# Entry
Amino acid sequence: MPKAIITGASAGLGQELARLMARDGWTLGLLARNQAALEALAEELGPGVKVRAADVTDSENLPAHLDALVAQLGGLDCIVVNAGVSPHNRKLAWEPDRQTVLTNVLGFTACASWAARLFYQQKHGHIVGVSSIAALRGSAAVPAYNASKAFVSHYLEGLRFNLSRFGIPVTDVRPGWVHTAMTKGAKGMFWVVQPDAAARGIYRAIRRKQKVAYVPRRWVLLAFLSAVTPGGLYQRISN
Ligand SMILES: NC(=O)c1ccc[n+]([C@@H]2O[C@H](COP(=O)([O-])OP(=O)(O)OC[C@H]3O[C@@H](n4cnc5c(N)ncnc54)[C@H](OP(=O)(O)O)[C@@H]3O)[C@@H](O)[C@H]2O)c1
# Structure
């Protein structure tokens, strides 16, 4: 049975993806800070699911947590680096930006680079990172979030260039808006989908080992438009 770790599996997209992958026969290691939520999910998904309460921003201790999960699983074929935050920050306070960079940049890199080293050594594995359509342009409301997702997408592209010589695939998943705790109360959203629908799109990209996947796929249209829209016009439409 294939084995995967999902970070940020205690809620939202990570939780729904865990449900899908467990149903499809994956042996899973689930990581997030909320131990009670992870244990409740593990109980729901049945025996064989391992959990680890850890904070991805604790980059010193994170490798030991991930190593322990791999030991419990008996190996690793895939990691889904999904944990992330997006605190609203139109007033440009420091703490939301700091949390965003710590989690989405430092925490993401700690997980992805750990997996890259493991898969490089064993010459096999699949790295999946959950970026966002937000990676493509700036945002007035969550400037650090969009910048952090640009980092995530570029980092994944670099890993893909590096690891392709060993046939190790790297998938950059870019969801549009999804109804989760992250988007609760957010205004101006459109094409919003439920987490189970988004998780199905993410899992499809994993199965196909896609390089870049927009979820749902219609967001590829907006990706194209946002790439060709001049900055001034983009600012007026998006803010
Ligand atoms: N919702 C959207 O519209 C949307 C759109 C595009 C991309 N995304 C991306 O999808 C991913 C999942 O988001 P979501 O919507 O499912 O959000 P969510 O419901 O708020 O879930 C976030 C998950 O990340 C975990 N997490 C946050 N900080 C962490 C930390 N320091 N250490 C370990 N785990 C941490 C949370 O677990 P604990 O609190 O238990 O630690 C939780 O399991 C994120 O990377 C997000 O940027 C979301």
Summary: The pocket of NAP is lined by residues 8-14, 32-34, 37, 55-57, 82-86, 103, 107, 130, 132, 175, 177-178, 180-183 (CB under 6 Å).
